[in-house]
Amino acid sequence: MSTRALAWIRVAWIAATLALAALWRGEALALLVPLALLGPLVREVAPPPDQDERQRLEDYRASHIALMSVYALLFLMVAKAQVVEGSGLTAELLVLLAVPLIVRSSISLGRGLGARRAGLTIGFVFGGLWLGFAVLSHGVSVATASEFPIGGGLLALTVVASRWPRLGGALLTMFGGGLLLFFVRPLVGHGAWGQALALTATLVTPSVVTGLLLLAAASGAGAASDDEFKDLRAEAGTK
Amino acid sequence: MDNRVRYFRFMRGEMSQAGLAELVGVSRQTIVAIERGNYNPSVELALRLGRALGTTVEELFTLDGDTR
């Protein structure tokens, strides 16, 4: 999509929002907020053909700086909630902090390190965090023992997956599904949406993502172990 | 952009991706991405690849459809 077409879409969006605000209610102006996402989204799906590589790089950089700005604001909100108001970290804030971090780290690790190492890193980090969280919260107690299977399970399955990626990957994916069924669903049933989102972001998603990454790595491992120069050797032999 | 990195690895005694990665100072995944055409290397990395594989950048990389 060309830059000009994108500009026309923006103009049409703004005009429609202003008309809605004038005819209905002022709060409709909130529809202007998603407009900020339009450019980056369109650039991901269909890069503008009239932009050169430097301009595209600058666009990516601008989106990255925007993410950092959102993080700075989130940090201020968390600091305000914790220090000034003493209300503690709400589940909604935790989700806002965790989700972009998980998404960013998963994509960066997956594309940078490859599926296997990325999967193992996510599994070990989140398993370790959950285990550490259980021990630090309750010390050596019954509560720790009851929470141990969550982080311990994630860690143990990641260890299994490091040796047998197909089996471990399948088990981790099922583990994530089980957590969703037994921990998150009851929370949703009780209307505790914040806690449900937090658990999904910090426990279910890492388990499933780790499992899927390791399964993807396992399916690619067969091709990688083949003789990669077989065709070239045959070609050289015929000459 | 097309590339012949795998071909030149083969010509250099069937050099592994990991071996080439170490020679030019990048990860093996980056070599995989370059060979698959998922990543276009910087001029500096292309020059280092050419040097490591004993060839030129023009031999390693060609524009799509460029038969020469």
Report on this model:
The complex is a heterodimer of chains A (239) and B (68). Chain A has 239 residues and is an all-alpha fold. Chain A has a domain at 91-221. In chain A, 84% of the residues lie in helices and 0% in strands. Chain A has helices at residues 3-23, 35-45, 53-84, 91-113, 115-138, 142-163, 165-189, 193-225, 230-238. In chain A, α1 (3-23) runs antiparallel to α2 (35-45), α5 (115-138) runs antiparallel to α8 (193-225) and α7 packs antiparallel against α8. Chain A is flat and about 60 Å long. The N and C termini of chain A lie far apart (47 Å). Chain B has 68 residues and is mainly alpha-helical. Chain B has a single domain, classed as 434 Repressor (Amino-terminal Domain) (Orthogonal Bundle). Chain B is built from five helices and two strands. Chain B has helices at residues 5-11, 17-24, 28-36, 43-52, 57-60; strands at 2-3, 61-62. In chain B, α2 packs across α3 (28-36). Chain B is globular. Chain B starts with a strand and ends in a 6-residue tail after the last strand. The mean pLDDT of chain B is 91. Classes of the chains: A mainly alpha (239), B mainly alpha (68). The A-B interface holds A 112-114, 228-229, 232-233, 236 and B 6-7, 10, 14, 27-29, 32.
Descriptive tags:
heterodimer; A: 239 residues; mainly alpha; 84% helix; 0% strand; B: 68 residues; 434 Repressor (Amino-terminal Domain); two-stranded antiparallel sheet; 5 helices; globular
